[in-house]
Amino acid sequence: MSARRRAALALLWAVLLAALAAFAAARLQTSGDLRLFMPAAQTTDQRLLLDSLGEGPGSRLLLIALSGAGAEPLADASRALREALDGQGLFRRVLNGEQGAEAFPEDSLPYRYLLSDGLAARPLDAEHLGRALRARLQDLGSPAASLIEPWLARDPTLEMLHLAERWQPAREPERRFDVWFDKAGENALLVAETEAAGFDPEAQQAALRALRAAVDEVAEGTPLRLEVSGPGAFSVLMRERTEGEATRLGLLASAAMILLMGLAYRGWRLPLLGALPLATAALAGLGCVAWLFGSVHGITLAFGFTLIGIALDYPVHLFSHRHAERSAWQDARRIGRTLAAGVVSTCLAYASFLVSGVAGLAQLAAFAIAGLLAAALSTRWLLPALMPAAAGDPGRSAWVMRLDRLPGALPQAPRWATLLAVLALAALLASPRSLWDDNLGRLTPLPQDLVQRDAELRAALRASDVRHLLVLEGTDTEALLQRCEALLPGLDGLVEAGALDDAEPPCRYLPSQRTQLERRAALPDAETLRAALEAAAHNLPFRQEAFAPFLEDVAAAREAAPLGPADLEGSPLGSRLASLLPASEPPVALIGLSGLRDVSALQRFAATSGDDLHLLDMKAASEALAATYRERMLLALSLAFALLLLALAAFLRDLRRVGQVLAPVLLAALCTAAALHLGGVAFNLFHLVALILASGLGLDYALFFQRAGRDPDERRRTLHGIGVCAVSTLLVFGLLASSSVPVLRAIGLTVALGVAFNLLLASQLAAERIDDRP
């Protein structure tokens, strides 16, 4: 091809890549919702677990600690910070201990008589109103006058105060200057609920920026120290750490690979050309995910670009099989069948993720399959047109000649390979430790000091138990609230017995409509109430007309329809209620538990209270979900393996050769698993995906080694190509194995071990020739 045509093809290729990049950038949204990497929930408990990880109120909470000043300045800063954050629009509510009547919407204040149980034993008659008015008279002469006076005309019985006290948890944080503090008085404490879900790093990062800016504003020169904990803060931190390390290690790995490629091919033209299929793979993968899904998880992108690293092997095989007496087109044609077998087989392995039932893995599969196919096709049909004539035979390199003599010094492969398989199986089967890690929390592992500090802040804030909940199932919200009311005596009994400090049912905030109607019916009519108020105020220095707002509220309550959850949406009280009445099918009510000491007592209570109530253990539910995921993944991989056998049989046309190709790959996977297990590693999602990546690389090695057969020239060229592929892979993933981020370390260590085992075993067990040359 002439130089002009080469330039035109290169330009056309670049334009195509730019179009793919523009398409992906315009359509693709990045998600941080960890639920994308979990299987679909099959039970109510699993649905509640996944909701708590993603959209649930618990995932939106930020725990805030202010320190660096005295108690009173910190209390002032706490109040100022709460006011500043309330106006941001990024937070649903901000609590610092001052929350009281303002939790209830202003236009719904008449409903206090329907929500409060305070009038059940003391109706609004002259006797009760008289006691209340005399008490208010005393309050006005006390230091509490400034707090009581604004409410006197509208609420002389202080029913709203009674409700506020009822809504306060039994165990509150320490208070100093009317705001929350830790026990030592060194940290002012706040809780902020963000509008964004906890695993939306972009939105959480915006909320954290607003929080830090507000702290800087209220500090006014005071060196306040801010600490933030909670799922949102952790998701931002882990993303920043993972992206930072991945970028740093990626730059180091890229520099090392460029140097390696330059040394391997004695120049820079071929390495630069090899970057074209790699870029094609990455952008085709992004374009496919953008087209099919519209959004992509950050983990999918990180994994996807790692998997796309396989695509560099395709041009490397072509470069290493160059021959001075053949054109690049002829060389591409000679390895085309083997290259196609490797690509199709690897794509079939990733296709198992499409039926795994896990959205994140389906995205990953689409990314990898589209990318690998694009890289293989561009290597086979576009790259040869841009390649210069071969200047030498890569197989004649000195290091290749030395490696080619090495196998003769090793014992016969079947003997030591069999021994290796037996030892690996024994290591896995005889070990008392579990092979799998069912702790979903380790999908986003955190440094231990952050975990410890989070536990300290939760203890200081007297937060509810995040592991255990009572779950009540019903037909609708009204039925659930009525059942909650029926359970109240039993829950109070558990508190009195010391099994827990407090139970938080949704009927604490919103009684059933039946109860609200009963309380409404107990309210006196306007004339009766006015007469009772006149009698109560007799001989007291109150003007009758001063209590007009009170009379209006009671009259409004007598005419009001019962409140429902929708009526409280947008208020702090509504947020608390939403966490206890989550959207679920079937409908459920959650009863929060604080200070739980006796789990068995709660289990007995649930067992004897009816089939519609049970105690949810989040840890047990997460482990069951992980086990379900594992079983489905293994089933999907079994299906993929069956398809892989069929594909290899179609390419290789000989079942014995299929076995010779698969034997080193399967044995390498077994040895990798055994080595990791002996090193104290339990497998999770990241290890499984990394092991499939290593097996895909090993499959390529085995196919090319078997293709070379006993032809010494072809064997050395194959050894050159696979050597460059393996060393580059080991450079990349060896660097990842040194990462301080556990996720990156798990990927790097698994792939590096897998590639090493695959290289050793494929070179010894897959050496029979397959004639796919035209």
TrEMBL record:
TM region positions: 246-265, 272-293, 299-319, 339-358, 633-652, 661-679, 685-705, 717-737, 743-767
Record carries keyword Chaperone: no
Main location: membrane
Cellular localisation: Cell membrane
Signal peptide span: 1-24
Topology in membrane: Multi-pass membrane protein
Keywords: Cell membrane, Membrane, Signal, Transmembrane, Transmembrane helix
Key word Magnesium present: no
Sequence ranges assigned to domain Membrane transport protein MMPL in this UniProt record: 202-390
PANTHER family associated with the record: MEMBRANE PROTEIN MJ1562-RELATED, MEMBRANE PROTEIN YDFJ
Protein name: MMPL family transporter
